[in-house]
Amino acid sequence: MSKDTKKVVRVTSITEYKTLEKYLEKKAAMGLMLSEIKKNILIFKKVTPRNLTFNVSLFYPSTPFDYPDYEEEKYYRELCEDSGWKYCASNEIYQIFYKEENIDVVPIHTDSREEYRIIKNIFLKTEFIAMLCIVLMLAMSFNQAMGFDYSDLFSNRTLFVIISPIFLLVIGLLLYVPSIIWFIRNKINISRGNELDFISYRGRLVLTTISWSMIAVYLMCAIFGITDGYKNIKGIIALIPAIISFIVGRYCYRRIKTKKNTRKHNIIFVLTVVIITTIIITASFTMSIMFTIGSFNGNDFIPEKIAVLELSDFGISDVPQRLRSHQKSSILVPEYLEYYESLGRKTEENEITSIRTTYIKCRNKSIADYVFDGYVEKQKKRLEKRISEYREYGDIEKAKAEEKSISKVYNDSWEADRGYYLSDNNSEIIFQNDNIIYILESDIDFSKAKIVNICEQKLNQ
Q1: Cα(173)–Cα(134) distance, rounded to whole angstroms?
Q2: Where exactly are the transmembrane stretches of this chain (predicted)?
Q3: How far is it, in rounded angstroms, from Cα 80 to Cα 96?
Q4: For 361-392, how does the pLDDT look when each residue is reduced to its tens digit (9 = 90+)?
Q5: Is 419 exposed, middle or buried (0-12, 13-18, 19+ CB in 10 A)?
Q6: Same-domain status, 114 and 91
Q7: Domain coverage including residue 351
Q8: Order of strands across the sheet that contains 5-9
Q9: Percent of the chain at pLDDT above 90?
């Protein structure tokens, strides 16, 4: 692009298209004259500043699958030029004309009822579809967010799922509520015989600034969440569906508008492309899941910066046959580590064959309290379910034994702010110190003084 031209991206709702006239007039007064308009891209060329009056008229095919009727557009253009207006530019929706501010020409009038009908039809064929997509995304996001769990704090991806409904709701309100209000208000104007009322240029400017700011923040959060703060670049695969959908949508749109085919032919073509695209997206989504599962399998390494329990700490000289270490983090839980060792064989009497350490460091104590309480509450619900099943099958002894599975850890045994044994043989324990939580699982009794001493010496170093 030459230095004498300038591209501007401007998204204008069909119910606010008259604000485009004021925008073009301000640009012309600044020495920028519209030379071409492609969808939402306006191309200006530098000229001598001029005081012009613009008129934007609406044109749109019967359906999105129809090839444009260029003969009708040409006839309308000639009609306006015969009335004294000068042709400026056009796209698939707008025909734009202008005149010198001090020159009188025949006004381009549209009956208010007819203009309202045209705007409504174009809105239903274009923006209404996008509105339904946002509503669908909003419903899906709320459904996912309703299943919020303490473990969702461990990943930026799941945190994004939680905040996503709020962003989508605000964006949807900013984008489409003004249009809905416009239809209601002007339905009343028509019934009273008044002209259509459009939002002011300044009002549209404020809404546009807020809307695009929210969209920009939402997209940054989406990328940050999907890639897990750039710690998991494999997560970028999850963006493939959106990228493919955008490319395919643009391709179908251009083909329909540039190749003269019947509506039936275009519908069949789009359906075929959608089916093929769905297969590709499904494949990419499957790959994303596989990569995610692969990342959860962890790596065979012993953490250096975080203290974890090892079989060797308990006098086991055999080399572990299974060793897994998995790390993740989020803005609320900067460090999450799960480390596991196992001898890979059946347990003999009084033998330690496996040990699992889960280390959780939260941003502050309040978040740690929430995670701790959430984990214990989930264990209690699982216990209640087991007890209920035992009682249902008449095994009262096991039911009574399970009732004592979860018990409080007292400070005279463990040096911790609080803690719980989570099994009847005390082989699982959770304890918290300020903003740090440890969860230990093994085939040993964590209430024995000797075991407690080994654990505290290793974990508190």
Answers
A1: 10
A2: 122-142, 162-184, 205-227, 233-253, 265-291
A3: 10
A4: 999 999 999 999 999 999 999 888 888 888 88
A5: buried
A6: no
A7: 311-459
A8: 5-9, 41-46, 32-38
A9: 23
